[in-house]
Amino acid sequence: MNAVDKPFSQACENNKGPILKVLLSAFAPSRRVLEIGSGTGQHAVYFAAALPRLVWQPTDRAEYLAGIQQWLDDYLGHNMAPLRALDVMDTDWPSDFDAVFTANTLHIMPWSSAQHLIAEVGRRLPEFGMFAVYGPFNEGGEYTSPSNREFDQWLKSRAAHQGIRDREAVVSCAQHAGMALIRAHALPANNQLLVFHKAPASQPAHST
Ligand SMILES: C[S@@+](CC[C@H](N)C(=O)[O-])C[C@H]1O[C@@H](n2cnc3c(N)ncnc32)[C@H](O)[C@@H]1O
């Protein structure tokens, strides 16, 4: 395979720099990151190279693995864990992580699966573990831009279970799962990076 055979997302190229600026501080206390829905694999190689102190664990559903592996095959660093299959509805998740990153997944999977993802992350993260979720979100039941409205309509025309999620609903699920929102970072193209941490058992997971 040569480079042109790799899956490629222009959106990933555009958003990886702004996301990294946040992850540099958000994942500063972290050691091992589980990425859910690695997609093309571009984020995995970019973030692993830029955050060499961390071990990056890429995962995705089985049909994505061959494409992601092409990016991993060209990765020269030593901090990439072997790619593995993970559908969030699986019971067998990787066991050793203290941070989770997922981009553009919550609006693709059914809302019930997104709720399950958040619940499992909250259940499996250690205290003070970090959870970073990137994507478009609605606020107060409203689209945050005309382009997000069009995107949501396009998603729903493709698959009825897809659609932009309400930020409040995501934050509420996370709180029920023991995670508190540290900050919602506004990023380019009307996307956001929501950063949570797993609150210690003695503290309620309300936003700070
Ligand atoms: C739009 S792509 C985003 C890929 C990549 N993270 C990015 O930002 O370009 C959506 C991703 O969500 C993943 N996904 C959808 N449902 C999933 C599930 N139930 N479990 C794990 N991943 C899922 C897909 O396999 C795909 O990789």
Your description of this structure?
- It is built from 6 helices and 9 strands.
- By secondary structure, it is an alpha/beta fold.
- It has a single domain (3-198), classed as Rossmann fold (3-Layer(aba) Sandwich).
- Helix 1 packs parallel to helix 2 (42-50) and helix 4 (111-124) runs parallel beside helix 6 (167-176).
- The protein is globular, with a radius of gyration of 16 Å.
- The model has no long low-confidence stretch (mean pLDDT 96).
- S-adenosylmethionine binds at residues 9, 12, 36-40, 43, 60-61, 64, 86-89, 103-105, 108-109, 113.
- Residues 9, 12, 36-40, 43, 60-61, 64, 86-89, 103-105, 108-109, 113 line the site of S-adenosylmethionine.
Please give the structural blueprint.
Elements: H1 10-26, E1 32-36, H2 42-50, E2 55-60, H3 65-73, E3 84-85, E4 99-103, H4 111-124, E5 130-135, E6 137-138, H5 146-158, E7 165-166, H6 167-176, E8 179-187, E9 191-198
Parallel strand pairs: 1-2, 1-4, 2-3, 4-5, 6-7
Antiparallel strand pairs: 5-9, 8-9
S-adenosylmethionine (SAM) is lined by residues 9, 12, 36-40, 43, 60-61, 64, 86-89, 103-105, 108-109, 113.
